[in-house]
Amino acid sequence: MSVFVDYGERMRNRPRASLGRILQDLGTTVLDVAASPGDLDAEVTGVHVFDPLDELIVPPGGIVLAVGVRGAAEICSLIRRAPQAAGVVVKLPVDVEEEVRATVLETGVAVLALTRAASWAQVAALLRSLLAEGDLAEPGQGPQGDLFSLANAVCALLDAPVTIEDRSSRVLAFSGRQDEADQGRVETVLGRQVPERYLRMLDERGFFKQLYQSREPVYMELGEEGVINRTAVAVRSGDEILGSIWVAVREPLSEQRRRALADAAKIVALQLLRERAGADTQRRLRADLLSTVLAGGADAPEAAGRLGIATTRLCVLAAQLTDDAAADPARGESDRQRFCDALALHVAAIHPKAAAASVGSIAYAVLPLHSVGDEEARAVRVAESFLARVGPRHAANIGVGRLAANLSQVARSRADADRALRVLRARGTTGQAAGYTDVHFESLLLQVADVAAAEEQAPTGPYQRLLEHDAEHGTELAATLRAYLDAFGDVNVASARVHVHANTFRYRLKRLVEISGLDLSDPDARLTVMLQMRIFGR
User: Fold this and answer.
1) Contact assessment for residue 255 and residue 262, using Cβ atoms and an 8 Å cutoff
2) Distances (CA, A) of 38 to 33, 45, 104, 107, 325
3) What are the tens digits of pLDDT across the range 199-258?
4) In what residue span(s) does the PucR C-terminal helix-turn-helix domain sit (predicted)?
């Protein structure tokens, strides 16, 4: 353990989040300097996504993700709009002309080049993980833990790039020098998850079983072209597997370095336990604060202030897994937490003050939006983008409420989102997002159905007589009527839908009119029976 004393001290005294430190942590795998004002000692305070439709407000030290910015003129224009920023990130290829260099020197804002392989959501997540901002910490309280410093310490000890992963092979932290590893490691760092094909290969060769059964580092000869071998060690707390440390190496570690890696696993275990406790506390705090904001009332302004959304216009998103009825309650709760965490990360990449938390089985997010028109549609697009990203792992629906111009309207936006989500559940769909205004009438019908059920009301008039006749004689006259109305009276279309001949359908239609007394030529009578079908759902 003595070999880790200096690195433990270094972890406790980690330097502030300077631009140079971030570039050192990420390495040229993700970001590189395209134009520098000189030293890169500027302190980084946050990550901000550039949207040409929104007002650009970047505090001192912010990093601006220049989504869609191309060419020297656009780069210079963005820098002048954010002269207090620490840097702007532009996707390769970056057009660095003399005008760009002059603007960088004039403002002190660095231009960073982002690899084409990375998405904006990925780089936003990576930067925020490195910053570990701890927005909800009390004054004077530092952020919880520093796995990135620990990963760099292990990298220095073993002279090889390192990742720290959880039990599901998601990347919790990584060291510098990742560009020295292989393409699989690059994909892992960018996606914050080991790609499925590598997981399958490791599992089929029994490496995971060997790793989790051993308390010592395990050397894995992968034997794949262009793939560097790995040495890994499980991170444990007693008999519980918390995760693992992976080192990209070309040959087995020396005995001294094997011992250093085993010792590192113990320190990482302590750090993960601290972070898990802190994350649980923070998750509960955010959930309580967000619940208070969503409920409205006297305490909402203070809660909104702590979340940093007190003065913004908001849309509420209500997201729920559609396969939530897991056989294992613990697994279900874990899935819901991961889903909520993914939603929080997604909306934070859209706006730095967005907040998300689980309330019961639903993950709510409040998304600040500038007033540029059609805010609800923009929020729906955000929701659709999120569902597209998590679709392979989480089947879910999202309801979007109307824009809340102030805090007093947030509770209404939450109710809107809940109702839109309920409409999607009633449709039996999955992977869908809907704004409340788009499903307003369906929502009203569901509310009327609730009232009818609460008051134990039942169908009446012609529709009641049809249902009673079907129940007594085993006929399908109600289904015939539904098909006829759904087809706007087109007998050929309606008969095809219920799979009978058109003449048979006409006979059934004549019989249902005789039995029910329904006048199909009366638009009010048609509307009445259609509403009863929707409300009573038979």
Assistant:
1) no
2) 11, 19, 9, 11, 56
3) 999 999 999 999 999 989 999 998 888 889 999 999 988 778 889 999 999 999 999 899
4) 477-535
**Inter-residue contact 528 to 510 (CB < 8 Å):** no
Q: Contact at 8 Å (CB) between 76 and 103?
A: yes
This prediction has a pTM of 0.52
Closest CA to 498 of 519, 475, 515: 475
* DSSP string computed for 24-62: HHH-TTTEEEEE--S---PBP-EEEE--TTS-----TTE
Instruction: Return d(Cα 105, Cα 35) in angstroms, integer.
Output: 9
**Cα–Cα distance, 61 to 352 (Å, whole number):** 14
Q: Give 415's pLDDT tier (boundaries 50, 70, 90).
A: very high
The H or E element that residue 174 is part of is: strand 171-174
**What is the Cα–Cα distance from 438 to 242, expressed in whole angstroms?**
44
Name the nearest CA neighbour of 193 among 170, 219, 227: 170
C-beta contacts of 192-197 below 8 A and 24+ residues apart: 192/122, 192/125, 192/126, 193/169, 194/165, 194/169, 194/170
Q: Which tokens in the block code for residue 447?
A: 């509310």
